[in-house]
Specification:
Helix content: over 70%
Keywords: Membrane, Transmembrane, Transmembrane helix, Transport
Membrane topology: Multi-pass membrane protein
CATH architecture: Orthogonal Bundle
GO cellular component, one term: membrane
Distance between the termini: 55 Å
Radius of gyration: 21 Å
Order of helices and strands: HHHHHHHHHHHHHHHHHHH
Shape: globular
Subcellular location: Membrane
Protein name: Neurotransmitter:Na+ symporter, NSS family
Bound molecules: phenylalanine, sodium ion
CATH topology: Hydantoin permease
Length: 452
């Protein structure tokens, strides 16, 4: 039996976990989500979700990975033979995400290049949709778009390179470079953004609390959705990563560090994005609320427009899209590692073979999004992942562990035996009762919204 790969150091593991957590969710999902759900008041449900669901689940996943030293499917089957499918199901969700995440990274690579000389011209929206993506009424897929295809291939080369080199020399090495670089880039962007005219109005809009929203269930759902997606919970990632931890590891502490680091990146991104939106509002004499956007629209339509109006626009644009690439790649590596580890164990094949099989299949599927119809497809798949995938995956996981296998006490014992902070009944209460109830409510509510 080959010895299980291990992280080179505690900081290596933490950087990889933070690298997985910090992604597009922090940069383009959090700011608008907070703004739309009560601004400053959103921090109450957000912190509640972080402390009662996000970090407790992270502790649980770290404990599972550390205790069973296996990928997600095998870990679940070691807890209870009947639960292997829970792990496979998580792996499947990660697989699906890993087919469209590289597309967004590919766009960002091209936009980092377009930044130099602001090649998107006077009408960035039209440039993105018509010139760059060639979205046309060409049936469902249309033809392959070469300007997307080539950077996508580049992304997969990166992914294959780092994953092929293994846990320490590949994943850890990449994150040791990407995450510190990302932090530096973030800080430069935020400082620059804060010194733009109108920045203060942006921050004012972002932080101004609307306390009346606190009683609204949908605000709480938004907070939970953000926390789960943002912390990469219930996607088999954190179980896989923690399975490479050495025996002596303070897992509870690591979970707190990961959770707070991710939220810090989120707050920083919120400040940066809204300072820039404040500048946009100032330039166009509109209220900030008129220019708020998120996701693809924010990054590839609104931001190029603002960037063009900034001093040193090429530099600033390059940094912004560069940060998307760094944040995206480190998350992408973590999603793909889930199925590589799972396939490797299940079929007793080498890492290289599992990578060829899993990564190869994901790469092939990803080409569907590199077509003229790709944007549409990406929107649809992303919608389902965000509205059902995240909550359902979390719900299935806690119910399986807490109620079906009744494994919480056992896991608590394991975590406590190696961690400084000891888990109390609060931990079991959060996972066994509070979180499943909220996630269940979330599923039903999203479903009712959709059929109405
Ligand atoms: N946590 C990442 C983010 O905030 C997104 C992600 C989700 C990454 C699921 C991997 C898997 O952007
Ligand atoms: Na995140």
């Amino acid at each position: 039996m080959e010895q299980r790969s291990q992280w080179g150091s505690r900081i290596g593991f933490l950087l990889a976990a933070i690298g997985s957590a910090v992604g597009l969710g922090n940069i383009w999902r959090f700011p608008a989500t907070a703004f739309d759900n009560g601004g400053g008041a959103f921090f109450v449900p957000y912190l509640f979700a972080l402390l009662t669901a996000g970090i407790p689940l992270l502790i649980m996943e770290y404990t599972i990975g550390h205790k069973y030293r296996s990928s997600s499917p095998r870990s679940f089957s070691k807890i209870n033979k009947k639960m292997e499918w829970v792990g496979w199901w998580q792996v499947l969700i990660s697989f699906v995400i890993s087919t469209y995440y590289p597309i967004i990274i590919a766009w960002s690579i091209m936009y980092a290049y377009f930044s130099i000389g602001t090649k998107w011209g006077d009408d960035p929206t039209n440039f993105f949709v018509a010139d760059f993506l060639e979205v046309a009424d060409a049936g469902v897929f249309g033809s392959i778009v070469p300007s997307v295809l080539f950077p996508v291939i580049l992304v997969w080369i990166f992914v294959f390179f780092f994953l092929g080199r293994g846990v320490k020399k590949g994943i850890e090495f990449a994150n040791r470079i990407f995450i510190p670089a990302l932090l530096v880039v973030f800080i430069i962007i935020v400082v620059r953004a804060l010194t733009l005219p109108g920045a203060i109005d942006g921050l004012d809009a972002f932080f101004k609390p609307d306390w009346s929203r606190i009683a609204d269930g949908s605000v709480w759902i938004a907070a939970y959705g953000q926390i789960f997606f943002s912390l990469s919970i219930a996607f088999a990632i954190m179980i896989t990563y923690s399975s490479y931890l050495p025996k002596k590891s303070d897992i509870t502490n690591n979970a707190f560090i990961t959770g707070f680091a991710n939220s810090s990146f989120e707050l920083l991104a919120g400040i940066g994005v809204f300072a820039v939106l404040g500048f946009m509002a100032y330039q166009t004499s509109q209220p900030v609320s008129e220019v708020v956007a998120d996701g693809v629209g924010l990054a590839f339509m609104v931001f190029p427009e603002i960037i063009s109006q900034m001093p040193a626009s090429s530099f600033f644009g390059f940094l912004f899209f560069g940060s998307l690439v760094l944040a995206g790649l480190s998350s992408m590596i973590s999603i793909s590692e889930t199925y590589i580890a799972a396939v490797q164990e299940k079929f007793s094949v080498s890492r290289g073979k599992a990578l060829m099989l899993g990564g190869g299949l994901a790469a092939l599927v990803s080409l569907l999004y590199a077509t003229q119809g790709g944007l549409n497809l990406l929107d649809t798949v992303d919608y389902f992942i965000n509205n059902y995938g995240v909550a359902l995956a979390g719900l299935v996981e806690v119910v399986a562990i807490a109620w079906f296998a009744r494994a919480l006490k056992d896991l608590q014992h394991h975590a406590d035996s190696i961690s400084d902070i000891k888990l109390g009944v609060w931990w079991r209460f959060c996972l066994g009762f509070l979180t499943p109830i909220v996630l269940g409510y979330m599923m039903v509510k999203n479903f009712l919204n959709d059929i109405n």
